């Protein structure tokens, strides 16, 4: 199930994004970015719709995924994200 980021408390959203950034260890190429910059990048992706917050009932977990990843999950019939 997609969780609109606007429905989350600001502190909860901040914590979710920061946890995602720290867990993912996202590679930004040769240039290094601060955690704060990465958080703002993910926040911008959520606002633009490039990234989505999804809740899995099966795993009882929340994650941030790209729109393309979510669509691929749907195509592979990952019904736990619906």
Helix-strand layout with pairing:
Blueprint: E1 2-3, H1 10-24, H2 35-48, E2 51-56, E3 61-66, H3 67-75
Antiparallel strand pairs: 1-2, 2-3
Helix pairs in contact: 1-2
Q: Give the structural class.
A: alpha+beta
Q: Name the strands of the widest sheet in spatial order.
A: 1-2-3
Can you give the mean pLDDT?
86
Number of helices: 3
Percent of residues in helical segments? 40-55%
Radius of gyration: 13 Å
How far apart the termini lie comes to 4 Å
What is the ordering of alpha helices and beta strands?
A: EHHEEH
Please characterize this protein's 3D structure.
- By secondary structure, the protein is an alpha+beta fold.
- It is built from three helices and three strands; from the N terminus they run βααββα.
- It has helices at residues 10-24, 35-48, 67-75, and strands at 2-3, 51-56, 61-66.
- The longest helix has 15 residues, at 10-24.
- The chain starts with a strand and ends in a 7-residue tail after the last helix.
Features of this protein?
82 residues, alpha+beta, 3 helices, single chain, 17% strand, three-stranded antiparallel sheet, 46% helix
Q: What's this, in brief?
A:
The protein has 82 residues and is an alpha+beta fold.
